[in-house]
Amino acid sequence: PRGYPYSAMNEEVETEEKETNEIIASQGLWTNIPDLDAVRILMDGNLEGQAETLTKKEDFTHNFAAEDGNYLTVCSMNLAFKREVIPAFYQFPMDDNEWDIGRFDDIWSGLTLKKAADMLGKSLINGYPLCEHNKAKRSTFGDLNNEVPALELNEHFWEALEEAPEEAEDYFEAYEEMIKAVDNYDFSDHANADFIDFTVKHMRMWLEAIRALQEQQEA
Question: Fewer CB within 10 Å, N side or C side of the chain?
């Protein structure tokens, strides 16, 4: 799917049963046109953003949860989440920036949400309800131009989040720790590393804004 690191494409998948006390987000999956990145669409699709291999209802048989310490890509469509997660679920700044980076806003927000869930002992589930995705035609190369500047950063962003502590008191603290982890991680050898400084600045602004709104509500 879109946002999945290329370095992880050949990983073996293991499944087991998991008990969870609380689900904080539910991501419904798609039938028909899957959510793929431009590189994969060029390999299995056309120049109008349409994949050739489609999914159908029968391809999905049950819900599943990602194990603690594992990450997953998240699309902001067909997604439900609890209000309490908002401090750790910022949709990252994309498109309007000097690096021309786009298309990773919900991808990276999904990584921070999953890390926060792990830190607080919560779970994300994926699967139902399904929705039929009828994607409008658009330039595959246009999407590729938006994705390429951050492809290398995307391979390592989750590694930066892994440097945050394993536990937190609440979503505010979880996100604060993730901001520190991303800020301290060495992206300098990767293309467009300065975009991370831009990102960290906006992560801090987001948390300050949410905290101010909460204080105003409690006043």
Answer: C
Q: Which of 53, 55, 45, 74 is nearest to 140 (CA)?
A: 45
Give the pLDDT confidence of 136-194 residue by residue, as tens digits. Answer: 999 999 999 999 999 999 999 999 999 999 999 999 999 999 999 999 999 999 999 99
Cα separation, 52 vs 46, in Å, equals 7
